[in-house]
Specification:
It contains 9 helices and 9 strands. It is α/β, with parallel strands linked by helices. It starts with 12 loop residues before the first helix and ends in a 25-residue tail after the last strand.
């Protein structure tokens, strides 16, 4: 008779926390990355945050107890130093959060080669290099990786084809890791946030508000009007999901692409005109 205990997780969340688990969080100087550092350190993890802005990293480190390392994740040698210095300092690596990203707007016919290349390099190639370097350590620790994609990786957002494509690619990259390295004990998952209160989103809301004569809060309400939970997320809400995916509480969650979007990606846009809560103008032919 099969012993079902053979298939039960051997570590609880408390066990993982007590063992001194270690994570690297890219883009850790603000937004979702900073909130993830806060969530993980509060749970007992040792967290290394990286990014290009030393001042921003220092402020997050002071607030959370995370360890800052200034790193350009598009620099292959810098990525290798980041991973190896973390593993040497702490003796292990249990989690990798691939959060750093950039957006350069413009439809395909207008997007420059340099803007396309910047998004591919930061949003897709840099995560590949980090995974390539970190996976031996994650295999040893039976660790986990989480990619921070976007609803733009699930549904095409107008005017941002490079962002859409690279975020969709990030999701497939993590799913491929899940398939290839799951048999070796590594889990890899993806979160896809919708509008989230971050520095990047604040800038976009300022631009939208300027065009429509709205303040930032009104712009957020407008951008979230069709979301079933009609508000933007807080970075801490996305971070809580990431922390859960890294933890043994999610020990059988692998290759998941999880929207954290208030229901945004579930909306059938073809029925919005039938919803009495909204009034739409007839588009000009």
């Amino acid at each position: 008779m099969t012993n079902t205990a053979d298939y039960e997780p051997q570590a609880t969340l408390a066990d993982r926390e007590a063992s001194g688990a270690v994570a690297i969080v890219t883009g850790g100087g603000s937004g979702i990355g900073a909130a993830t550092a806060q969530s993980l350190t509060a749970a007992g993890w040792s967290v290394v945050i990286c990014g290009r802005r030393a001042g921003a990293l220092a402020r997050v480190a002071d607030a959370t107890g995370a360890h800052p390392i200034v790193t350009d994740t598009t620099d292959k040698a810098a990525v290798a130093r980041l991973v190896e210095s973390t593993a040497t300092r702490f003796g292990r690596l249990d989690g990798l959060v691939l959060n750093a990203g950039v957006v350069r707007p413009g439809p395909v016919g207008e997007l420059s080669d340099s803007d396309w290349a910047a998004m591919v390099e930061t949003n897709l190639t840099a995560p590949y290099r980090l995974l390539h370097t970190a996976l031996p350590h994650l295999v040893r620790s039976s660790g986990a990786a989480v990619g921070v994609s976007s609803v733009s990786g699930l549904r095409a957002s107008g005017g941002t084809p490079g962002y859409n494509a690279t975020k969709a690619g990030l999701s497939m990259l993590l799913q491929s890791v899940a398939v290839d390295y799951g048999p070796r004990g590594v889990r890899a998952n993806v979160v896809c946030p919708g509008w989230t209160r971050t520095e990047m989103a604040d800038e976009e809301m300022a631009e939208l508000g300027g065009e429509r004569g709205l303040d930032a809060e009104q712009a957020y309400r407008l951008a979230s009007a069709l979301v079933p939970l009609p508000r933007p997320a807080y970075a801490a809400e996305v971070a809580a999901t990431i922390a859960w995916l890294l933890s043994p509480a999610a020990s059988y969650v692998n290759a998941a692409v999880l929207p954290v979007d208030g229901g945004h990606s579930a909306v059938d846009v073809g029925t919005v005109a039938l919803d009495p809560r909204f009034s739409l103008a007839v588009p000009t032919p």
